[in-house]
Amino acid sequence: MVEISSDVIRGYNDTMILYILMRAPSYGYEISKQIKNISEGKYVIKETTLYSAFTRMEKNGYIESYVAEPGADGNGKKRTYYSITDAGKEYFKMKCEEWELTKEVVQKFIEK
Which residues of 56-68 are buried (b: 16+ CB within 10 A; e: fewer)? Predict the structure, then answer.
């Protein structure tokens, strides 16, 4: 089975994360699980890659983070949640347009 090279997908990790955050705020483990599920197991984002993306996107103003306390029943633990900002929504839109152009160019070099 062919696996997706991390070099190939690196530029689109942000896009995948933002796609998930457009649906609802979420936390790291849940986001990585959703990426694996949506990609049908064809891509598993590494934890270091995920948290590097969070740091970079928060610094650029594309996402915001907040800490949620454990549930009232005392179960669970504190989690850092991430939510998309308006700038993040614009960045997502730009990355989607870039992807369409990328597919168009690369397709010209793929044998059919």
Answer: ebeeeebbeeeee
